[in-house]
Amino acid sequence: MSCCSSIVVLLAFGFLAALCSAIDVSYDERAVKIDGERRILLSGSIHYPRSTAEMWPDLIKKGKDGGLNTIETYVFWNAHEPKRREYNFEGNLDVVRFIKTIQSEGLYAILRIGPYVCAEWNYGGFPVWLHNIPGIKFRTKNQIFEDEMRNFTTVIVEMMRREKLFASQGGPIILAQIENEYGNIMWKYGADGVDYMNWCANMAESYNIGVPWIMCQQDNAPKPIISTCNGWYCDHWNPKRNDIPKMWTENWSGWFKNWQAQDPHRTAEDLAFAVAKFFQSGGTMQNYYMYHGGTNFGRTAGGPYITTSYDYDAPLDEYGNLNQPKWGHLRSLHFVLRSIEKALTNGFVRTTSYGNSVQVTSFSYRGQDVCFLGNSNQSSDATINYQGTMFTIPAWSISILPDCFNEVYNTAKVNSQTSIMVKTPNLADDGEEPYRLQWSWRSEHFAHKKKDGTVDGSGLITNALLDQKAVTNDTSDYLWYITSVNINKTDAILGADVSLHVVTSGHILHAFVNGVHIGTQIGDNGHYGFTFDRKVNLNVGQNDIVLLSVTVGLANYGAEFENAEVGIHGPVQLIGTKQNQKVVVDLSENQWIYKAGLAGEAKQLFADPNSHKWHNYGLPTSRMFVWYKTTFKAPLGTDPVVVDLLGLGKGEAWINGQSIGRYWPSSAANENGCSYNCDYRGPYSSGKCLTNCGKSSQRWYHVPREFLKDDANEMVLFEELGGNPWNVKFQTVTVGTICANAFEGNTLELSCQGGRVISDVRFASFGLPQGTCGSFTKGRCESPKAFAYIFNHCKGKASCSIPVNELTLGPTGCKDTNRLAVEAIC
Ligand SMILES: *[C@@H]1O[C@H](CO)[C@@H](O)[C@H](O)[C@H]1NC(C)=O
Ligand SMILES: *[C@@H]1O[C@H](CO)[C@@H](O)[C@H](O)[C@H]1NC(C)=O
Ligand SMILES: *[C@@H]1O[C@H](CO)[C@@H](O)[C@H](O)[C@H]1NC(C)=O
Ligand SMILES: *[C@@H]1O[C@H](CO)[C@@H](O)[C@H](O)[C@H]1NC(C)=O
Ligand SMILES: CC(=O)N[C@H]1CO[C@H](CO)[C@@H](O)[C@@H]1O
Fold it and tell me: Which residue's CA is the nearest one to ligand 1's atom 2?
């Protein structure tokens, strides 16, 4: 590894790769072995298509600074092969460049090819054309599927081999994964599932890549494939074979977010506890899912109803900023774990139980004794006598003692700064007023039948209701279903109270009868489909019925999720009631004309907006189906850029022709379930520690700086539901307030971001301060020197480092362990 790490930046990759010597990767029951040495692997997931290629070096470097030695990614089949045998490895799909960026930071890589990835990614990473091949069945014994899977897997493996990226060739990839969490659903497929799983294993092995293959959540993976664990905690999980190490491929650092749902948070204390517990119980490899979650650009969000933000409450936020204190608290843990690597991977292990869920584990190796003091009790702190010394272990925490005597880390004692991020406005040239956007607009045309019975831009005509993804091949979220019904003077339905009844598996439905919009219905988050009923007025003669079905991301998880219906599967009926009599006209087998996508999508209004006509006057608001366009200048500086779309309804946004994803600020998060205080103690699950109740479920959208030009930039919006663009603003995200609460014996690092400096110190107390960030108060003993020391050392600086001890900050006159609390402004 080292031979390729530092020098490689200076020289051409291809040339140097050849000079790198092979790295031997093997494993035994204890750990993955690199060049014969057992190693602990501290890995973090960063998915390359969820950021930009220009962001990768910074994200990976922040991973390295955070103490990781490995970066893990999935490979996204539908992104790379959007049409059968037509490949895309450009821009942020340049997976080779991504792996080489990992290599140039001197880190290892884990390549999870899948090619099923789940990942809250559209259709779990499967291309929709795959589904449209006759006779195919996914993820089971099926020749057509297996041939396609082999074909894509081969493309990826050979690409990596050609670039010499496997460790056996001197590259960074130390492990590769085939399939993904198949063990969770294999039972559904019976004997064919087992056959398929073995086929996957054999295919993987046949590539001879010279590094081990893993299968996650696959306890019966055949030798030599390694089975690994995914989950919130994996300490209780143990491999079923005794020749493989205990490895954790997905430790959920937080959780993803849905439209209409609140923001999930997992505390730094609980995440650190889960990791420490895993290593205490013999684990040697663990991966944060996610370390950087990022953004679901374009239409890549899975679903249905997964937001464009894939922040995941990961150690790096959606935009790549440090998510503090999580990043820093884990960083300290990583450095402690790395300092005791030899003992963890080779030591003699002894675990002693102290009752009440308290356990001490020691690892003894060549005269070094390392101890983990673990307290899994959710409510009560524990004090134990270990080898003649008394130790207090807070509830739901683990202390690490590299010499079994001095506690150097406790998962519940956070000594890193908390950063409160703020959005700052994009100022106009005078530097005073926020920059005001000017808008122009044009209408999207509703599809309709012309006099001659045809529909502009239509494709298919058939006497059946078809699945949306089979017709659109997922080239758009939108599919029009168009039909007509003739009503004559003697029809029983005439004169009745008539309603249009549509049963749909789509996510949103807009219905039009005789050119009039009669209603829009949005599915409930988590439910597949709904029934739409609205009153209609019928004419004698021809009545045109136009239905627009909208998808918001295709399903990505579950047995046979690929067959989940989307679009209008029917029935579609006119239901009339007259004198308690019901008259039903079923339209399901009528002649249906299909039109995929919007007129503006076909014209690519977003690609070169100025080559089309736009209106500069009479800007409509609250009107559905409007395209909006504005020109803006890029915010100065280097802080990440976001656009605040509050006021708009739902649609998609493009910046200089690049889609920044679906937007839906009018979708409000559930009112209930949020907690002001989040107790890190007790098992975490995605419903714990929610915020943002009742607010827009996603208001800010990431605009990567690489999408922006120095001068004029174009933003195009397609507004589907109706909204008001007047409040749209571009902003930057940076650290506003920093707080810290560090224990004696640590060094506290405070830092701002983007070139800003600490402009003021609002609070500093060394002794026994009380409260939390924003509401700190002085405690009963207090050093008179602390505030002045911090003011002098930090004010005007981009960062400062404070040794938290009596010598520097004291005297406090306290007997207890002193703490330092600081609140400062960037
Ligand atoms: C992939 O499929 C194409 C035909 O579509 C074929 O030419 C090629 O050889 C296949 N590659 C592999 C590795 O199976
Ligand atoms: C946690 O501690 C309390 C109080 O000592 C005790 O009653 C309880 O049984 C403990 N729980 C576990 C799971 O050990
Ligand atoms: C979808 O794919 C099918 C078969 O590959 C093709 O016939 C059809 O035209 C495609 N539809 C669209 C809207 O691209
Ligand atoms: C009117 O419609 C009804 C039902 O569709 C049909 O039975 C009848 O023959 C039609 N009459 C005329 C005059 O077209
Ligand atoms: C079994 C399970 O729920 N697995 C999920 C673990 O988390 C990842 C990331 O959120 C998902 O992709 C898996 O579906």
Answer: 151
Q: Would you say residue 9 has pLDDT above 60?
A: no
Q: Is residue 451 part of a domain?
A: no
| Length of the chain counted residue by residue | 826
CATH of the domain at 527: 2.60.120.260
**Nearest CA residue ID for atom 14, ligand 2:** 356
Q: Is residue 449 part of a domain?
A: no
Which of 490, 538, 574, 587 to probe ligand 4 with, by most ligand atoms within 8 A of CB?
A: 490
Q: Out of 148, 250, 562, 744, pick the active-site residue.
A: 250
> Ligand 2, atom 2: nearest CA belongs to which residue?
380
Per-residue model confidence as pLDDT tens digits over 589-627? 999 999 999 999 999 999 998 999 999 999 999 999 999
Structure tokens at 288: 């944060």
Which residues on adjacent β-strands are paired with residue 658?
A: 655
Short-list 600, 596, 593, 598, CA closest to 452: 593
On whether both 437 and 492 belong to a single domain, the answer is no
**DSSP state, 8?**
G
- Residue 760 to residue 457: CA distance in whole angstroms: 61
Looking at the CA of 203, name the nearest ligand: 1
Judge whether 181 counts as a catalytic residue: yes
Convert the pLDDT of each residue in 374-418 to its tens digit.
999 999 999 999 999 999 999 999 999 999 999 999 999 999 999
In tens, the pLDDT along 81-126 reads 999 999 999 999 999 999 999 999 999 999 999 999 999 999 999 9
| Ligand 5 binding site (Cβ under 6 Å of any ligand atom) | 118-120, 181, 184, 230, 250, 252, 256, 289, 557
* Rounded CA separation 57/104 (Å): 9
- Asked if residue 700 and residue 641 are part of one domain, the reply reads yes
Q: Using one digit for the tens of pLDDT, what is the confidence trace for 638-690?
A: 999 999 999 999 999 999 999 999 999 999 999 999 987 899 999 999 899 99
Q: Print the domain residue range for 362.
A: 324-416
